[in-house]
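Hi W., the iron/sulfur cluster complex you wanted:
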Amino acid sequence: MKLLLDSTRCQGYGLCQEQAPDLVELDEWGYAEVITLVVAPAAEESARACADSCPNAALRVEK
Ligand code: SF4
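Structure:
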């Protein structure tokens, strides 16, 4: 699974990072950056929660 970010949609709410601090970090302005593009099997549930948490649909998972 991959966790993909469309940074043009990110508004810096930070909810994704709260859901998955191991997968996403926030830059100095609060915008998301994906730490791990390829998600380990054990972190897939966390990646889905992370993507679902974004109010702007900036994150998605892809098999
Ligand atoms: S929740 Fe969405 S809009 Fe907010 S920082 Fe994360 S990717 Fe960006």
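The pocket of iron/sulfur cluster is lined by residues 10-16, 32, 53-54, 56, 58-59 (CB under 6 Å).

W.
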